[in-house]
Write a structure and sequence with these properties.
Blueprint: H1 2-14, E1 27-31, E2 50-55, E3 58-62, E4 71-74, E5 77-80, E6 104-110, E7 115-121, E8 126-127, E9 131-132, E10 140-146, E11 151-158, H2 163-167, E12 173-180, E13 183-190, E14 216-218, E15 227-230, E16 235-240, E17 245-248, E18 253-258, E19 263-266, E20 277-288, E21 294-300, E22 307-311, H3 320-323, E23 334-337, E24 344-349, E25 355-361, E26 364-369, E27 379-387, E28 392-397, E29 400-406, E30 419-421, E31 445-454, H4 460-470, E32 494-498, H5 504-507, E33 517-521, E34 528-531, E35 540-542, E36 548-550, E37 556-557, E38 565-566, E39 578-584, E40 589-596, E41 616-623, E42 628-636, E43 649-652, H6 658-661, E44 668-672, E45 677-680, E46 695-700, E47 707-711, E48 717-719, E49 732-733, E50 755-758, E51 760-762, E52 768-770, E53 776-786, H7 794-801, E54 805-810, E55 812-818, E56 823-828, E57 832-838, E58 845-846, E59 849-853, E60 860-864, E61 867-869, E62 875-882, E63 885-892, E64 895-896, E65 900-906
Parallel strand pairs: 56-59
Antiparallel strand pairs: 1-2, 2-3, 3-4, 4-5, 6-7, 7-10, 8-9, 10-11, 11-12, 12-13, 14-31, 15-16, 16-19, 17-18, 18-31, 19-30, 20-27, 20-31, 21-24, 21-30, 22-23, 24-25, 25-26, 27-28, 28-29, 32-33, 33-34, 34-35, 35-36, 36-43, 37-38, 39-40, 40-41, 41-42, 42-53, 43-50, 44-45, 44-46, 46-47, 47-53, ...
Length: 908
C-alpha cells in the first residue's frame, strides 16, 4: 500500500507541473491521475490506470474521469478532444462509463519518434447490473499517434455488423490536429469509406445433374457476397451472420457456418408444399459438434423447450467450506425436458454428431436418430425421407441407410414459419454440469453445400445416386486445422502486442484492431506467456509442444443476483477483461491483467449500486529472462473474503485429448524445501490421499520435457476429484475457453472444441489487505515452465520464499526484498552502488533482480564478487521511466549459497 500511495501522490504533484519534457522529446507513462473528486475515493484501480503523454508544451492525458476521452493541458488550461462518437452509459455526463467497465487504454508505442495510444470503448449501453445493449459488434477502437512536434493523427474504427466492413482499411474516421501552447488547432476530419466487393472464392468443378426433381435447391455457388439463391424459385436469400465465408464445396463453393450466428432463411410463402412424402438432403462437414440439436435444413414452428425437472447431482458452485457436505457431482446430472412436440420438418445433427430426422406426421412429432457419428472435417451426404404409403422414415448417410422408423401413414403437418438452413431454435446444451446452463441460440459449425428438398420420398437407389453424383474427390473438407495461437516466435525476450488468430469463423465474430493480445517470449527458453482474448486474457503458460496451462484467477459465487460462478471465464466475448504491457525491458517484463468477477449473464459480484463498483481484480505479472514469473494478485472487494485464488488448469485445443497432453503417472509432484517429493498418479481416477504438509513446490507433469511449476507458501490444498466422466481420467469441460454458450459448466465428450481439465487447488496466505473505502485483498505466487527436476527447483523456491537479506555498503538506500516483484528495491544516492546479498543454504540467491529508483537515463556496469559481467545474456538491464524520474532494472544470472557482493556504476 505504501508504494501505491507514493505513486498516486507524485501523480497529483505532477499535474501542477508544466515543462517536463525536454525540447523535441516525447514520453508516455502509465500513472494514476487523482483529481480529488468524490468518485476517486472509491476507485478500484491501481497505479497504472491512466496515461499521460508529456510534450514540451503540455500534457495529453487519458483519464478514467472522462472514460478516457483525452484532454490537452497547458499553462492556459485544459481542452478535451472532440467526442466524435456519442457516448451514453451508466455514468454521469463526461464519465459515461461510470467505472470504465468497457473503456480502457494502452500504450502501444512509447517514442522516441512517436507515441501511440490505443483507446477501446463501448459507446452506448444501459442498465446497471447487468448492463443492456452490450454487443461485440458495437465497440469502438481509437488510436492516437502523437509526434514530438505536437502533431496528432487520430483514427476511429466503429463497430460494424459485418467483419469485412470492420477490416476495410478505408472504413475509419481520420482526424488530425496539433497540440500547441494555445490549445488544439488545425483540426481536420475525414469521413470513412468502403471499397469494392471481395474476391470470389475458388471452388471445385460444378456438377449440374441431380437425382430426382428437387422442389428447392440451394447450390451455394455464388462464391462471394452475402446472398445465395434458391435455384428452383430464383428467390434470393440473405446469408446472416458476421461474414459469408465461401469455401470449396462438393460442387463449386460451399458456405462455412460459425455455429452461432450463421443462418439462411427462405420465406415461408415461397416454401415448397409437401404433404404425403418428403426428402431432405444436404452435404455437411462438421467443424465442431453442436451444443445440441441443430438443423441442416428445417421448416418448423420451433416450439420452445419446456423444462420439467433436473435429475442427478450438480457440480459445486460454492466455497471450499461448503463442499464437504454436498453430494458428489457426476455427468448423470441432466435437464429433463418435456417431449418435443413441434410442427413441420427437420433434418439435422445432435450434440454427439448423430444425424437425425424429425417430422410432424399426423398428430405426432416423430424423431429418428441414427447411431452413426459423423467425423469432423470430412464431407458427408445426409438425407432423410418419409413416405406416407409405406409409413416409414429413413435416414441415409453417404447413400446408405443409417436408420429407419415405422410411423403412422398420415400426412405431414407443415409449418408456416420460414425455411432455415444452419440454425434453429434456442436450446439448452447437452452434458450440463449444473443448473446455470441457459437456453441460447446455437447453429451448425462447419460447411454446408448442396441442400435440396423433394416433395417425394426418394428411394434407396436414388439417394445412392445423389451421393455418387456429388461425391467429392477427397473426403477432407476445405477447413483449416484449429490450433491455439502462440504468437510470432521472435526468439527474443520481451513482450509485444498482437492480434492472435484462431480459426476463421471464430475470428470473424469479434471487432478488435491490431493490438488486443499480449505475448511474452524468451530467448533462452521455448516457453511463452500468452494473454489472449479467446481465454478471456486468463494468463497462459505455454511449453515447447504448444501445451497450455494456467493457475486460474479470482472466483466467487452467487452474489448480487448472480447465478453460479462469478469469474473471468464468464467474459466469453472479452467485453471487459484485458491485458496491457506496463514494462518491457531487457531485464524484465510487467503485464497487468484486469477483469471483473461476473457470471455468464454478466452480473458483477458484490455490486454497489451507489458507486457502480463490484469485485474487480488487478493481477500484475513480473516476468524475468529465466522464464520465471511472480504475480501479485490484487482483488478489490467489499464482500465476504471467501474467494478462490488458485486452480491448476490444463487447457486444450481442438484435437488435444487430456491424456495425450498430461502424464498420468505421475500427473502431480509436490515438493518441500528439502527436496522431498511426493508423486501422485491419475490412473483410473484422481488420487484421494494427497497431502500439502510443508510442500512449497507444485509441478504438473506434461508429456513434454517442459512442465508447469508453481511455488508458494501453501497453507493446504486439495485434488479436483469430482465431475468425472468416461471421456478422461481428468475432469474435462468445454464450456470454456472460446465457447460462446452461457454456461459455466459443460462436460466434454470429444476433443472437438477447446477445453480444459482441473487437477488441484492450493490455499495461500494473504500478502496485503485493506478494509477502507477501497477494500482489497492481495496474494502472491510464483510460476513458470521448466525442464528442471523437482529438486533442481528447490533453490529457486528458497530464494523467493525465504529471501536473503541485503546490506547496503554505499550509494543507495534499501527497502529490502519485495516478494511481489521478486526484486530488491533500492533508491540511488549517487552514480555507484555497492551492496551485499547475504545468501546462505536456507536463503540462496537465484538470478536476482534489483530495481534502482532515480538512477537516471544512463546505462550501468555490473561487478559481481569482483568480476565485471558484460551486458548480454548473463546480465541484462533496462530503464523504467516514471513521471518523477527514471529507474534502472538489473537482472543477472547467478546462483549462490554464499554472500554475493554487487557493484553497479554508471557506464562511461
Amino acid at each position: 500500500m505504501k508504494i501505491w500511495l507514493t505513486i498516486i501522490g507524485i501523480c497529483v504533484a505532477f499535474l501542477a507541473v508544466s515543462d517536463i519534457a525536454t525540447a523535441g522529446k516525447i514520453n508516455a507513462y502509465y500513472t494514476k491521475v487523482d483529481s480529488g473528486q468524490e468518485f476517486e475515493k472509491y476507485s478500484r484501480t491501481g497505479p497504472y490506470a491512466d496515461i499521460v503523454v508529456v510534450l514540451e508544451s503540455g500534457k495529453f492525458v487519458f483519464w478514467r474521469g472522462s472514460s478516457y476521452l483525452p484532454y490537452w493541458e497547458t499553462k492556459k488550461g485544459k481542452t478535451y478532444v472532440e467526442e466524435l462518437i456519442l457516448r451514453v452509459g451508466d455514468g454521469p455526463p463526461g464519465r459515461p462509463d461510470i467505472v470504465n467497465t468497457y473503456s480502457r487504454v494502452a500504450i502501444i508505442k512509447d517514442g522516441p519518434e512517436e507515441v501511440v495510444v490505443y483507446w477501446r470503448y463501448l459507446p452506448q449501453f444501459g442498465g446497471k447490473n447487468p448492463h443492456t445493449g452490450v454487443d461485440a459488434t458495437k465497440f469502438v477502437d481509437e488510436y492516437f499517434t502523437i509526434s514530438p512536434d505536437g502533431n496528432v493523427v487520430r483514427t476511429i474504427r466503429r463497430g460494424t455488423a459485418k467483419i469485412d466492413d470492420w477490416r476495410e482499411p478505408a472504413n475509419k474516421i481520420v482526424q488530425t490536429f496539433r497540440l500547441t501552447p494555445d490549445g488544439l488547432v488545425d483540426k481536420k476530419t475525414r469521413c470513412p469509406g468502403l471499397s469494392g466487393k471481395p474476391e470470389a472464392a475458388k471452388g471445385t468443378p460444378v456438377k449440374t445433374k441431380a437425382a430426382g426433381n428437387p422442389v428447392a435447391w440451394w447450390k451455394f455457388n455464388e462464391a462471394q457476397g452475402d446472398v445465395t439463391v434458391e435455384s428452383v424459385s430464383g428467390q434470393s436469400c440473405i446469408v446472416e451472420g458476421h461474414k459469408s465465408l465461401w469455401k470449396k464445396g462438393v460442387s463449386g463453393t460451399a458456405l462455412q457456418f460459425d455455429g452461432y450466428n450463421s443462418l439462411i432463411r427462405f420465406p415461408a410463402d415461397k416454401a415448397p408444399k409437401v404433404s404425403s412424402a418428403l426428402t431432405l438432403e444436404g452435404w455437411v462437414a462438421i467443424g465442431a459438434y453442436p451444443w445440441s440439436w441443430t438443423p441442416i435444413i428445417q421448416q418448423a414452428d420451433d416450439v420452445e423447450e419446456v423444462l420439467l425437472r433436473k435429475e442427478g447431482p450438480e457440480a459445486f458452485v460454492t466455497g471450499e467450506d461448503e463442499r464437504e457436505d454436498m453430494e458428489e457431482p457426476s455427468d448423470d446430472f441432466t435437464f429433463v425436458l418435456k417431449e418435443e412436440d413441434d410442427v413441420g420438418y427437420f433434418l439435422g445433427i445432435d450434440g454427439l454428431g448423430h444425424p437425425g430426422l424429425k417430422i410432424k406426421i399426423g398428430d405426432k412429432w416423430e424423431e429418428l436418430v441414427t447411431d452413426v457419428v459423423l467425423q469432423r472435417r470430412n464431407w458427408y451426404h445426409v438425407a432423410g425421407t418419409y413416405d406416407k404409403e409405406t409409413g416409414k422414415m429413413i435416414v441415409y448417410v453417404d447413400g446408405k441407410p443409417a436408420g429407419d422408423k415405422n410411423v403412422a401413414k398420415s400426412n405431414i403437418v407443415t409449418s408456416t414459419k420460414d425455411v432455415q438452413i444452419g440454425k434453429g431454435k434456442p436450446r439448452r446444451p447437452i452434458k450440463p454440469v449444473r443448473s446455470n446452463t441457459f437456453i441460447d441460440s446455437y447453429g451448425f459449425d462447419g460447411l454446408i453445400d448442396e441442400v435440396r428438398i423433394h416433395d417425394v420420398a426418394l428411394n434407396g437407389s436414388q439417394v445412392s445416386q445423389s451421393y455418387k453424383i456429388f461425391k467429392p474427390d477427397q473426403d477432407l473438407a476445405d477447413m483449416a486445422d484449429r490450433v491455439l495461437p502462440e504468437g510470432k516466435g521472435t526468439g527474443k525476450f520481451g513482450a509485444y502486442y498482437d492480434h492472435l488468430d484462431f480459426y476463421e469463423t471464430w475470428d470473424n465474430m469479434w471487432r478488435f484492431s491490431e493490438h488486443p493480445d499480449v505475448v511474452v517470449e524468451f530467448d533462452e527458453l521455448p516457453s511463452k506467456f500468452v494473454f489472449w482474448r479467446g481465454v478471456g486474457y486468463i494468463p497462459m503458460m505455454v511449453n515447447d509442444k504448444g501445451h497450455w496451462y494456467t493457475n486460474e484467477f479470482n472466483e466467487t459465487w452467487n452474489t448480487s443476483g448472480g447465478q453460479g460462478c462469478q469469474e473471468p471465464m464468464s467474459d466469453k466475448e472479452s467485453y471487459t477483461n484485458h491485458a496491457k504491457i506496463i514494462e518491457n525491458t531487457p531485464a524484465r517484463v510487467v503485464v497487468q491483467w484486469r477483469y471483473p468477477l461476473i457470471d455468464v449473464l454478466h452480473v458483477t459480484a458484490n455490486y454497489n449500486e451507489d458507486t457502480g463498483w463490484g469485485d474487480w481484480s488487478d493481477w500484475y505479472y513480473y516476468i524475468y529472462p529465466d522464464g520465471v514469473a511472480v504475480k501479485t494478485m490484487h482483488l478489490w472487494t467489499h464482500g465476504e473474503r471467501n474467494h478462490e485464488w488458485h486452480e491448476s488448469i490444463a487447457v486444450f485445443g481442438p484435437d488435444q485429448h487430456p491424456e495425450d497432453v498430461l502424464e498420468k503417472e505421475p500427473a502431480l509432484m509436490l515438493v518441500d524445501l528439502k527436496g522431498n517429493t511426493d508423486e501422485y498418479n491419475w490412473t483410473k481416477a484422481p488420487p484421494d490421499d494427497i497431502s500439502y504438509r510443508q510442500k512449497k513446490i507444485h509441478i504438473v507433469n506434461y508429456r513434454s520435457d517442459y512442465d508447469m511449476f508453481t511455488i508458494g507458501d501453501f497453507r493446504g490444498g486439495d485434488i479436483y476429484g469430482g465431475e468425472l466422466t468416461p471421456y478422461a481420467v481428468f475432469p474435462t469441460w468445454n464450456h470454456w475457453p472460446v465457447g460462446q454458450m452461457p454456461s459455466d459448466g459443460r462436460y466434454a465428450s470429444f476433443p472437438d472444441r477447446t477445453g480444459h481439465s482441473s487437477l488441484t487447488h492450493v490455499e495461500l496466505p494473504t500478502y496485503k489487505e485493506d478494509f477502507g473505502d477501497r477494500p482489497y485483498q492481495e496474494k502472491i505466487l510464483m510460476e513458470g515452465v521448466s525442464n528442471k527436476s523437482a529438486k533442481e527447483l528447490v533453490p529457486l523456491a528458497r530464494s523467493w520464499l525465504t529471501p536473503a537479506g541485503l546490506e547496503v555498503k554505499s550509494g543507495c538506500t534499501s527497502e529490502g526484498y519485495d516478494r511481489g516483484q521478486r526484486a530488491y528495491l533500492l533508491t540511488a544516492k549517487g552514480t555507484k552502488i555497492s551492496v551485499v546479498v547475504e545468501a546462505s543454504e536456507e536463503s540462496p540467491v537465484v538470478n536476482p533482480a534489483l530495481v534502482i529508483e532515480n538512477w537516471g537515463e544512463k546505462d550501468a556496469t555490473l561487478t559481481v564478487d569482483g568480476e565485471k559481467i558484460e551486458c548480454g545474456k548473463d546480465f541484462r538491464q533496462g530503464h523504467r521511466r516514471r513521471l518523477e524520474g527514471t529507474d534502472l532494472i538489473v537482472w543477472f544470472e547467478k546462483e549462490s549459497t554464499k554472500p554475493v557482493e554487487i557493484t553497479i556504476a554508471t557506464a562511461d
